Amino acid sequence: MYLREDALTDPLDTWLASAFAPHRIEQTITAMADAQPLDQPAATGTAAQTIIIECDAKLERYRAALDAGADPAVVTGWIAQTQAERARAEADLRTIAGTTPRRMSRAEITALVTALGDITTVLRDADPADKAEVYRQLGLRLNYQPETQTVRAEVDLSAHRGVMVCVRGATRTITPPPITIGTSLKLAQL
Fold first, then answer.
1. How buried is 20 (Cβ within 10 angstroms: 0-12 exposed, 13-18 middle, 19+ buried)?
2. Torsion of CA 71, 76, 77, 83, to 10 degrees
3. How far apart are CA 24 and CA 98, in angstroms?
4. How far apart are CA 33 and CA 157, in angstroms?
5. Residue 141 pLDDT exceeds 90
6. DSSP conformation class of 28
7. Local structure of residue 104 (DSSP, 8 states)
8. Is 123:138 a contact under the CB 8 Å cutoff?
9. Neighbours of 132 (CB within 10 A)
10. What's the pTM value of the predicted model, to 2 decimals?
């Protein structure tokens, strides 16, 4: 479906400006904080933690077997195998910890919104290419609803935000969880 650009951009810019206006910014930040998913441990993380606990129990049994006089060569093989399994589970946990989204604090959300600057001025003064870049950076998604002749507009402030951090010599990107706000825009007569 093709729509005239001005049929979308004028109501879209008005909505964005109103959502980030000084008198509504606290309400918008609250809506963004409330829209985040609850922190939940990944099932893979729980499985890896279970494997680590089981490996620790096995290692204790192997130590007891050695103390009881078991063949050290046999028990040493079991220990090596169990330690390798435990190391894989620990690596899985580290990977999960680096990729699992977490809820952002209200202060972090406020910092993101502040970093965007004065949306009203940016949108009003922007040439079309710059405005398209602002929409991209906001994670803007438009979904046309033909039955109501409306467009559902959503802004995902976390879609483009990745924070580079250095951890023990390795650099990785931490991506905040999705923070989405949205509205339905009634289109001007087409």
1. buried
2. 150
3. 34
4. 11
5. no
6. H
7. P
8. no
9. 13
10. 0.45
